[in-house]
Amino acid sequence: MSTTPIPALDLMFYLTETPQSPKHVGAVQVFQLPPDAPDDYLRQLVAAFKAAPVVAPFNRRPHFPRLGRPEWHTDPDLELDYHVRHLALPRPGDDRQLMDMVQRLHAPLLDRQRPGWICHVIEGLRDNRFAVYTKIHHAYIDGMSGVKRMYGSLSPSPRTKKIVPTWSYQPGTDSAQRPQHSRPEPARHLAAQVRGAAQASGILGRTALQLLNLRDSQGQVPFCAARTRMNRTIERETRTIAACTLPLDEVRAVARRQGCTVNEVVLAVIGAALQDYLEKLGEPPQESLVALCPMSIRAPGDDTASTQVSAIHVQLGAPQADIGERLQHVMASSRAAKDEVRDLSAQAMVDYGVVIFGLWEVLARTRLDQVIRPSCNVLVSNVPGPGDEGLYLCGSRLRASYPISTLLPGVNLNATLLSHGNSLDFGLLGDGHALPELDFVVERMAHHFAALQRQVLGGSAKKKTARKARRKTGAAPRKNPTARRTRPRAATSRGG
Questions:
Q1: What is the pLDDT of residue 10?
Q2: pTM for this one?
Q3: How far is residue 317's CA from residue 291's CA, in Å, rounded to a whole number?
């Protein structure tokens, strides 16, 4: 049995995991069956999934010895019947039913006695569609490495019948030109760790000075956000899920005109929608909401399966600002935050992330997070995918790919987005008790993006954007007059 030490940041996800706050991530991929698909197409697909080889890290499980460092152990008794499952919605299943099922599947912890992943093939969707929902422990992958495997296992051609599922895909094997990354020499690795620790200590020191008002900076620092219901303690594993899609080319058009990034446009839109949501619930924030934005620190071409992220804090705009003013505020805050960490090495960013994530967990475990100001109100993660307009799984075309992520200590809302082709697919995950009816948030996202288009692009804006924002959510909604005014029908997924 081969063993490998579990890196510190990956280990953090195991050490901070609880039944109320699992640390796995997932994605719901919706496919259109090919016109000539046989009746047993999905049974054959599931059989092919189970017959496919399992490569690292998906053949490993964590081992926690009484003494010594936790390790990855290769599992000699991996059971594909456990990891690959075939489910069905009552026909004709709709998107609300699909997301309701996903909510229930996403809630439980993964078994630590087995490799930390499960794949569900879900049939019964109307319009000749099916879904593949996969959840993987965050200790195995981060967003970038997960997306490379998820999209890399698909083909740009509908004629490709070879099936290479995520747990069989080995990045780098499909291109001889892709750079290969070898393990650094011990001495060089130690020097990088020492240099990173010193740099991380420096930024932590500057953060402390700023918290004490002894240093002036425009960058948002941790533990200075307003307290909202998005910072309530998570008492149960109940979750709410909502999802939507925006056209990527139109988001990019706004970003180009404003001289900003796609991520900054997204942050402004989410900030405006959350402002509306809290006002609807009778708790309007009196100061800017704050988003935590993960940053990938992967070297170009690095396809290793591990967590290589840090994060910055970004203000989402003044409460009474219109969408254009809000975007300007987001741009200024985002750039100030990036300036603070611009010269840090990747190791320093990892060390900084470990300290901050660990501190959040300590505060949450001791309930001190309900006494001091929160670090942020929402986690917003943007994971870029391939530009291919058409991607296929054994002839079935990918129609949507909604990320369903995890919740951090002290924050019970996560908004993650994935791109592929011209689609920007959003998946929102929240605590079902603190944040009911998340469908209202995605409705307002569509509304505010349309308003931003009109303001920035004027007559060239495509006013049909709000209609093109396709919301795919779970269980039937509660009646809500406000929601009906903004969209003809709302839906959300909430369960125990």
A1: 86
A2: 0.78
A3: 10
228 exposed, middle or buried (CB, 10 Å; 0-12, 13-18, 19+)? buried
Residue 283 contacts residue 267 (beta carbons within 8 Å): no
Q: What is the mean pLDDT of residues 399-410?
A: 90
Cis amide bond preceding 184, omega within 30: no
Alpha-carbon distance values, 257 to 94, 329, 341, 421, 469 (Å): 38, 16, 26, 21, 21
Which secondary structure element, helix H or strand E, spans residue 260, and what is its range?
none
Q: Is 308 helix (H, G, I), strand (E, B) or coil?
A: coil
CA dist 332 and 307 (Å) reads 28
Half-sphere exposure of 369 (CA within 13 A, CB side): 28
Say how far apart CA 60 and CA 78 lie, in whole Å.
9
Q: Helix, strand, coil: what percent of the chain each, to 5?
A: 35, 20, 40
Write the pLDDT tens digit of every residue in 180-211.
344 455 555 445 444 444 444 555 555 554 44
Contact between 418 and 385 (Cβ < 8 Å): yes
ω into 386 cis (within 30 of 0): no
Q: Which of 243, 158, 200, 139 is nearest to 474 (CA)?
A: 243
Burial of 32 per CB tally in 10 Å (0-12, 13-18, 19+): middle
Task: Determine the pLDDT at residue 385.
Answer: 80
Report the catalytic residues.
138
Please, are residues 372 and 283 in contact by the beta-carbon 8 Å criterion?
Answer: no
pLDDT given for residue 221 in this prediction: 66
What end-to-end distance do the CA atoms of the chain give, in Å? 38
243: left (phi over 0), alpha (psi -120 to 50) or beta: beta
Sorted by where each starts, the structural domains of the chain and their CATH numbers stand as: 3-152 (3.30.559.10), 190-495 (3.30.559.30)
User: How many Å is the maximal CA-CA distance in the chain?
Assistant: 69
As a whole number of angstroms, the distance between CA 419 and CA 144 comes to: 12
DSSP string across 108-169: SPPPTTS-SEEEEEEEEETTTEEEEEEEEETTT--HHHHHHHHHHTSBS-TT------TTT-
The whole-angstrom separation of Cα 234 and Cα 230 is 10
Which helix (H) or strand (E) is 187 found in, with range?
Answer: helix 186-211
